[in-house]
Each structure stands twice: as C-alpha cells, then as structure tokens.
Amino acid sequence: MKQVEGKLLIASPHLNDPSFFRAVVLVLKHNSDEAFGLILNRPTEHRLKEVIAMVSDAVCVHDMPLYCGGPVDGPLMALHDIPESVDTADRKGVAVSVQQESILELVAQPNVRLRIFDGYAGWGPEQLESELEQGSWLMAEANSENIFCDSDELWQRLVTEIGRDIITTGIKPMHLPTDPATN
Questions:
Q1: Based on the number of CB atoms within 10 Å of its own CB, is 19 exposed (0-12), middle (13-18) or buried (19 or more)?
Q2: Which domains does the chain have, with CATH numbers?
C-alpha cells in the first residue's frame, strides 16, 4: 500500500468527478480501512466571521472564507500553525484541530495562519489506492506554504511543478542547452 498520509493529492486533468475538478487535497489519514483529507482550494462564499457567529458568541478576528473540505459532511476542521492548540499530530508546521473549543480559540488569535473547513474528502477501503493506480491523482509533498497560500492558483502551480519535475528527470543534464533560447 502506497503511503499518502501527509501528502498532497492533485486531481489529474483527466479526473472526471466534479467534486474533485482541479482539487488539491491534503491527506490527513490513510490506512487499509479508510482515507480522508481536506480540499485546500475550495473557498466558499461564506465568511468565517458569519459562520462563527452562527455557532457561538466567540470573537473571530479573521475575515476569510470558509473552505469546502470535500463532499462528505462532517464537523468544522481547522488547519493552522499553532502546535500548542492541536487535536491531532502536527505535520510539517501544520496542525489540525477539530474540537469546537480549539477552533473558537484559534479564530480569536490574530497572528495565526488558519484555514477552517466544512466537510471532508473520504475514501473507503482500497478506493484511494485504486484511484491512484488509475492515474486519477498526482502526488506532491505537503508543506505549510502550499497549505496556506492563495488557493486560486494552487492546482495550476502544482501541476506545472510536477510536469517540470517529470520533464527534467527524463532529460539528461548534458542534453540541456546552457541558454534555452538557443534551443
């Protein structure tokens, strides 16, 4: 079983599922029984302040969109950079919180890199492995820069980087011109 937990899944240009069209998914859990993650590049029209006001009277200092984490209903989840406020393991500078109390504390902190998600992407036993074998997903290393960046161009940037890596590993350096303009 190929381990993808903590990696980014980038929807192949040939993936036909509209829920994942040009999606970039951070895989939070992957084992033989299940896999789940959060779509990083699906901001909704809902503002975080509005959503927090609907569930609590807590202060929210972040004027940002709520993100659609995927087509499966679930609790609000937060990705952030505060390791002390974490419900699950810290992954390369990115922490995950799912407890409402933790999320309410996070939205009140002005100096936190934060994304809040409604819903998640989920796969049953061996479903993700099958999709990977079919070429539905490309994979990349996850890092905090990709997770907290402007999500509008994330898919295109990652596909371009993966393509560049494929091309450069297939061409021997001695065949690359010193000045590409002379090619």
A1: middle
A2: 7-78+113-173+175-179 (3.40.1740.10)
